[in-house]
Amino acid sequence: MIRVLLADDEAMIRAGVRAILALAPDIEVIAEAADGREAVEAVRAHRPDVALLDIRMPRLDGLGAAEEIARTVPQTAVAMLTTFSEDAYVARALTGGATGFLLKSGDPAELLAGVRAVASGAAFLSPKVARQVIEGYGGERLSRSAAACERTRALSPREREVLALVGAGLSNPEIAAELHLVEGTVKAYVSAVLDRLEVRNRVQAAIVAYEAGLVGSGDS
């Protein structure tokens, strides 16, 4: 079972999200919180697989809670579930340790897919948010692409393969199956890639993969 903590200051929203998650036989909401501070305390107490956080909450907002959870309980994956998709929110969430960013206006199937993805160690962005991330480069796209290519030159061919699959959204077990490796070896490769690229999580690594042209290019 994927054990989920659900944090939102609106009880009706929590009830609706809980009802959607209850449709999945492999997902269980084990705790709820009405503000960010309560969410952090509940994560420390229950150690869920996924913390699903709203952004705007009292005492401590979801972005601050995500950063604290990522720092103090790194084994719990964090996904934001919010009405707001402004670039500043997305950027802070991803740099703060979240590996998922979902919109409340999205399809329920998107919510379930996102929870499963981050629980398995993959990254998941709602399609609208993913477009913002990719298109948000603006006039800096070419320079960012060149910089990303330079960063990935330090990787071995196998590490570049792993990075490309991380960028494609695959989890460690899926990468292991794709490359015919054991999962422990893949985990070691992913850790090495994050270290070499000097990024904090898989979302940031995936962005580098996109910028370097490794995703969908067939480049390995």
Features:
54% helix; transcription; six-stranded parallel β-sheet; 6 strands; alpha/beta; globular; Sig_transdc_resp-reg_C-effctor; 220 residues
How would you sum up this structure, described in words?
This is Response regulator transcription factor. It comes from Streptomyces polyasparticus. Keywords: DNA-binding, Phosphoprotein, Transcription, Transcription regulation. InterPro entries: CheY-like_superfamily, NreC/VraR/RcsB-like_REC, Sig_transdc_resp-reg_C-effctor, Sig_transdc_resp-reg_receiver, Tscrpt_reg_LuxR_C, WalR-like. There is one protein chain. 40% of the residues are buried. The chain is built from eleven helices and six strands. It is globular, with a radius of gyration of 17 Å. The mean pLDDT is 87. Helix 7 crosses helix 11, helix 8 crosses helix 11 and helix 9 packs across helix 10. It has a six-stranded parallel β-sheet, sandwiched between helices. The chain has 220 residues and is α/β, with parallel strands linked by helices. The N and C termini lie far apart (34 Å).
